[in-house]
Amino acid sequence: MFKLKLFALAALALIALVLSAVEGCAPAPIATPTGPRELVVMTHDSFAASDSVIKEFESANNAKIKILKAGDAGAALNKAILAKNNPLADAFYGVDNTFLSRALKESIFDAYKPASASKIPAEFVLDSEFRATPVDYGDVCLNYDRAYFQKKNLAPPQTLDNLIKPAYKSLTVVENPATSSPGLAFLLATVGSFGKDKYLDYWKALRANDVLVTEGWEDAYYAKSSWGGKGGDRPIVVSYATSPAAEVFFSNGKLTEPPTGNVIGEGVCFRQVEFVGVLKGAKNPDLARRFVDFMLSTKFQEDIPAQMFVFPVLPDAKLPDFYKFAETAKKPAIVSPTDIDANRDAWIKAWTEVVLR
Q1: With contact defined as beta carbons under 8 Å apart, do 264 and 327 qualify?
Q2: Is 306 exposed, middle or buried (0-12, 13-18, 19+ CB in 10 A)?
Q3: Tens digit of pLDDT for each residue in 203-227?
Q4: 235 and 225 in contact (C-beta within 8 Å)?
Q5: I need a labelling partner for 229 at 20 to 30 A (CA). Which of 77, 100, 144, 209 fits?
Q6: Domain spans of the chain?
């Protein structure tokens, strides 16, 4: 009986060994295919890109892009900073040189130097570590109503000083720098042109010449301008050097010439440069890095002008035909990102005291 039990145990062990060997030879289970990963891109409200361009990135990277619009550039950056320990997105696009130093000081970006970095003109590279990569640029300047000045037989303004002359009284509308990106850019243009000690003297003179202040660009450009079609009577508006081109584009063929012109003389304009970066703690940092590369691709760069009405940073990107009406300033006012970061709030506060109170 003992030998029988021993034989049975041996037989069971042999069977177990055979089954184990057979199981080891069995094919591995087939992995279940995974769907596209979601890439969240946090931006300001003015971000735009063609559907076909977005889909090209998604197809090439098995990804789905979610655009998280978060207010104007300043408001969006504030949200990104507040959430930096638990980021709301993988990448952030739209911080410009007026807020760049703050973004870098708050350390919200991981460094990533894209493959096309060497093609970017040095003037746009404001962070040598490439925590923020330049994507596009445009000049905030003065637009004027061509028909108004022809009818009045008055020369359009050429300089900032023209605006404080009696002939130009009650003609200009600007945006509040505390609530408007172009408003802040124009304030910086006056700082760069007149200096930190004298820019307020200029604004005092501008106020005495009945400058009108609005809270935002849309109100200034459409409601208060003499060409906006909403009863406004101001023929000079702080806007963009691409605005005349946009007028032609949105006319759908009705206009062959823009109704507005640009004032782009020395020190009148301020150049805004917009950046993209990979957010620290991103869920999909590899996708975010690929998106940075994609924003510097020919496809994306050539999509920018007709979507966001700014210039691509890559010089070899082709511009649409209507951009013959878009301009860039040869000598924009210059204020360093470091100076802006150190003085932005103080300059806005001082401006508010002088102009609004």
Answers
A1: yes
A2: middle
A3: 999 999 999 999 888 899 999 999 9
A4: yes
A5: 209
A6: 37-137+273-320, 138-270+330-355
